[in-house]
Amino acid sequence: MVGAPFFTVSRRREGGGNGLAAGAYDGVIVVSVDVAALEAKLRRMLGEPGDAVALVRRDGEVLARSLGYERPPPIRLPPDHPLVLSMARGEAGSVTDAPSGIDGVQRLTASRRVEGWPVYVTAARPSAAIVASWWQTLAAQLAIALPTALALLYMAYRVDRRHQALGEAIDGLERRVAARTADLAKSERRNVEILRSIGEPLCAFDPDGRVTYASDSAIAFWGKPAAQVLGHVFDEVFPAQVGSPAWEAKREGLEHGAETHLCCLSALAGRWIALDVYPRGDGGITIAFRDIHDRRLSELERRQAERAAREGEERFRLVTETAPIMLWMSTPEGRCLYVNAALRRFWGVTLEQLKDFDWGSMLHPEDAGPLAAQVMEAMASRRGFEVEARYRRSDGAWRLLHTVAQPRFGPSGELLGMIGVNADVTEARDAEATLRASEERLRMAQEAGGIGTWEADLQTGERRWSNSNYRLWGLEPGTPLDRGRIFSMIHPDDLPHVTAMTEAARSRGAGRLPEMEFRIIRACDGAVRRILSWGEVILGAEGKPARHLGVMQDVTERRAADERLRLLAREVDHRAKNALAVVQAALRLAPKDDAHAYARAVEGRVRALARA
Question: What pLDDT is recorded for position 211?
Fold first, then answer.
């Protein structure tokens, strides 16, 4: 049948005919087996519901099986499965009790190798069903044999008393009863040993709810000695479990013979268990349960982690969509994978248009090349980058965006792309340029006027000077400043005055500081320069003096000019006095008898003095 699954077996054919010697190679016999037909025959071999028959290759590959009607992908038992281990050891047959590799159900499995082939036939039955059947048989035997034995013993006693002649017959009957009782006890011990060897928590109840059997693992799970549990009504020993889901399943099994399978939280141990209730023919039930608490918690943790991840993604989406800054994510090829609302508004695109949107078309032509080179280098080196470039806004205006981006990596370390933020810094950069121009104008004015600014923090003692102030003192800009360094450059004759004025200024409140004029020995060339300093007190948040802010000016040339003016004034005064003395002498020597002659004489002598 075309498309039907099958498997093929082959075997070497040895000679002995066709002119070949005995044992010589004579080809290979190949047989193709229809899997569907074989599985149908295997299903007809089943005895009870839940039984499974399978054909398994030595490496664990399940070739055909009776369980299920829809064939899944090829099934291979795990390498550590007991059946695979026994086949690997080359054992002809084995019996294992382990989860089935087909549906995970715990089964007791018997295997037998097909003679001459690397294939095993396996037959399996659920362990819980075997246990239930054993207990049903055992209960039936006990229910019949024990009362019968007691009745026969009683009858034997009465017969012995009344009919001594039947003594030998009674003795034989007693021996048979004793042998039967011993057989039953031996069978019971064997069944108990088998149940204990399984290791799964098992317990059995009679129709009145008394515990007739409990495995060691069940006793350990309940946390009470076996003597307090066996032979007692379970609800009386453990009243806390009454009304719980496990109790309801037990009650349904005892009252209505209902088979139940459920997963619930144990009211006795506070742990999650998987519970299987199997009714028996005598009205009792057998219960098998497994502790699945750790697996259940792992599943709950996984679901919580998934829910937390979804909530985290939702919070991230909410934050990014409402954030005032522009956020984006890209693929390793640079294509936009996500753009938040702020950036979509900037470019004037919608979510639907984002798939075909080319953000490179929004770049200024002069910035496109440098930006592309920097992004490609960052992608190749798997590191972040920071860059500024001009982009055309949706209204056509060119805006300067500052971009900071970091790489995104997957679980295996693969590069997923970049995630970054854009900030519009157009106004900030314009303000910085204006500030720089203003500072440059201030610097030029200070340099031209020989002026420098200074600031002193009264709390920390830190001093900050402008570059022009450093140059006034002959220092390199940025040279560390302290009180000792500054006072060491003040002229020794002026140092006491400056020290006193500085100490007095520290205790002043708000207002203008007194002017100080002193000489310094300039550090760069040792020249003596005269400095004029003045400033103001700046108050802090608490209204107390916090800083001194002031200006220093080199007044050396001004003071020299003032001195020259004073010297010139003195010289002019001296010469004027001399001229007046000469005029006075000339007046005394002029004749005074004739007024006109006196006037002419005075005028002539004054003109002569002027010419001189």
Answer: 93
